[in-house]
Design a protein that fits this description.
Distance between the termini of chain B: 68 Å
CATH architecture of chain A: Alpha-Beta Complex
Number of helices of chain B: 15
CATH topology of chain A: Amidase signature (AS) enzymes
CATH class of chain A: Alpha Beta
Distance between the termini of chain A: 12 Å
Strand content of chain A: 5-15%
Oligomer: heterodimer
Number of domains of chain A: 1
Largest sheet of chain A: 8 strands, mixed
Radius of gyration of chain B: 30 Å
Shape of chain A: globular
Shape of chain B: elongated
Structural class of chain A: alpha/beta
Order of helices and strands of chain A: HHEHEHEHEHEEHEHEHHHHEHHEEH
Helix content of chain B: 25-40%
Chain lengths: ~475, ~475
Amino acid sequence: MHYKTIAQLANDLKNKVISSVELTQHFLQRIRQHDQKLNSFITLTEEAALITAKKADAARAQGFARPLTGIPLAHKDIFCTDGIKTSCGSKMLDKFIAPYDATVVQQFNQAGMVMLGKTNMDEFAMGSSNENSFYGPVKNPWHLDYVPGGSSGGSAAAVAAGFAPASTGTDTGGSIRQPAALCGITGLKPTYGRVSRYGMIAFASSLDQGGPFARTAEDVALLMNAMAGFDPKDSTSIDCPVPDYTATLNHPIKGLKIGLPKEYFSEGLNPAVQKLIQDAIKIYEAQGAIIKEVALPHTHLSGPAYYVLAPAECSSNLARYDGVRFGYRCENPVNLEDLYKRTRSEGFGMEVKRRILIGTYALSAGFYDAYYRKAQQIRRLIRDDFTQAFASVDVILSPTVPAPAFKCGEKAKDPLTMYLSDIYTIAVNLAGLPGLSLPAGFVDGLPIGMQLIGKLFDESTILNLGHCYQQHTDWHTRTPGGF
Amino acid sequence: MEWETVIGLEVHAQLLTKTKIFSGAPTQFGAEPNTQACAIDLGMPGVLPVLNATAVNMAIKFGLAVGATIQKESIFARKNYFYPDLPKGYQISQFELPVVSGGHLDITLEDGVTKRVNLTRAHLEEDAGKSLHEDFNGSSGIDLNRAGTPLLEIVSEPEMRSAREAIAYVKTLHTLVRYLGICDGNMQEGSLRCDVNVSVRPLGQTKFGTRAELKNINSFRFIERAIHYEVERQISILESGGSIIQETRLYDPDKNETRSMRSKEEANDYRYFPDPDLLPLRITEEMILQVSAQLPELPQQKRERFIKDYELSDYDANLLVSNQDLANFFEATVKASHHQPKLAVNWISSELLGALNKASLDITESPVSAETLGKLVLRIADHTISGKIAKTIFEALWQQAGDVDEIIEKRGLKQVTDTSAIETLIDQVITANPTQTAEYRAGKDRLFGYFVGQVMKASGGKFNPDQVNVILKQKLQG
């Protein structure tokens, strides 16, 4: 039951095969039983979950059920939840009880979904392995010696292990797609501005975007129907109509043009991963899609640009954690400077500090033009690359990650190698485009992912292609043993 | 050596919006600490700013009033620095692309000379909170009520050459923002705050000297004093062979001195960059037209109209226009007086403003309404009462003793215009003063005033002075 899709569970609820309370209890039970192995949750909200589940059952009994009513989900601990600890994976916010709900949390509450708890993550969403959490690393359900990816590693691992049918994540440089790929589930980073960022703790504001994890593209579409839309509280959210993402899932893909960026199929790509992606391409070809090579000539610059812009924004976004109003405060500060220095030295982890330092440097007087401004110019070139490519294709297809998950600790001491696991994902954030990661097979028993990149606000087409792929493959139905 | 003072001003005007610039929290002054700050003002994790459209309209209004360029696209930037009353660790301001560029203010000095001061820019930004260093046993308290209050920072070119010019500039600006209804101009409450950049240079030199930025100046008087102190300080350093260091100095009104806050080296590196939480501010032609249609008559236009329509002197026009309420009061008085602008301005500037000043009342709190004062002026003009009697009536009106005509009637203060009564009394005065009469007739003309005084006194001020003059002259000539 715990590996069923949302669509299946919704059907079971509708047909009274099971109640939301039973479903919620079942997932909570699994988390209690198995999560010591994975460490995917920071907070379990059992009591509140059961109350919500009861309400969902009551609503259903009265005929008020909506598509997601009574379905459990988990939120990445980056989304503020009213009255519930919201830690962002940091000692800095270990005792922080958010005073309000993030818009995304509100949307899922209104949709009748049942929050099981808050999932583990890299501190302030900075990381690709989930080893940077104050609450300890998350393990990959497919092999406990391996990382689940990051920064939304807890959300991805929880869905992969059948602790929840769905979860939320955030993606700044790949933090939804990369863990989705490494955990063998489906994850979508929507177009920048499609999902509200209000109440989503900021890492790099111009890149951050919330999105869903689930087992299938169809489930992702269902979740997007609830979470997409304009939010007047987020000035960067875009006021344009939200389609019904489920309506176009079964459209024939005949004639759709799929672009393969040659830069993404070059050195650095694991040959076994390449082979699996080639298999996927063949499936699309067989369905009548037209495959074309496209060029994204500035791809090699996306890493350098990203690792200037994201740290620059983070250095400013994280200035508010100063020990004055909320969050961690050092003991017995002797004066203001001591308060700042020790609070921030003690409250932040290594990777966060590294990025704050890089970002502060990049923005400082005399370096701004060489780093920040230059990176913004590169960002424009990367965006132009995609615009150019999308003039001749509808969708761009690539691997999500160059290789399957690496071992815990393997790259922890080498940030530069770690940063390379995002090479296929970060350009998408720089361009603000939607990107979907789908389970596309296994290499050495570990899942890998395929990425579909869409035009701005065209989540429908990549979900359509994702659904089509999942009708012809069974990678998304595979489950890890031991849970 | 002769020195020239160079002054540029940065004025922060708190905009009169109901809510903050990036949140829905109220902006009211004087509330209990931390009761007017929401999650956004507190910089809580996850919150985002949303720009207040009214603040933008006010900036446009200001820009139009000073003949500036309203930028079609401007950018909000983050000014990063750590301070306990700055919740986010950065202030949202505008840096490279401000909403208002250029423009000018024409200032009138006391001697009537006008000077044009060019503006560099005006930009929108949020205010910080307040640190309270007393009453916390050695710790500091933070009040974030003010955090996020919208400010328009108005930056002038360094074109003022004396404290007087600087004062005239701030006064002109003060009047303008109140006319526009974008700022209440209350300097004590900090609604209008000035930072003054001061430098000196040898007269004739074109290159600017090194400047000091004076902070914390919250009255016109302090602006003047702070500039005087600073100019003398700089000149004495330079004349003794020293050099000025670029620094921020704090003005201490109690000691009347400026002292160093931080030097250029110690200054924060603000690491400005565009705020990714806010899209570029786009202002359409339509928005500008809409605001333009709401522009009131500006002080300068009003001054010109007063001079033309009411034939007022520059001095009187300036006095009235400096305060929009006063100007309105004047126009209402003129209307009630059936158009007696000169008498009206005289009565307002001497009797009324004197009395208001004594009672510490604002023109809007005047016990004598413009309609009543106008009526009084009308009665002087139509010779019902003399100016002298009018003063008595004004006092009664101040005590709110009733209507002008009622008082005149009740107290029998109506001016006597009956020639025979005047003649009789004049005859009596001449008879009673034989010596003076003889001297006058012998050519001592200046005694005429003495006779007028005697007659008016004897009449209880009720004779028409013009009539008295004519008849007295005839009678004295014998």
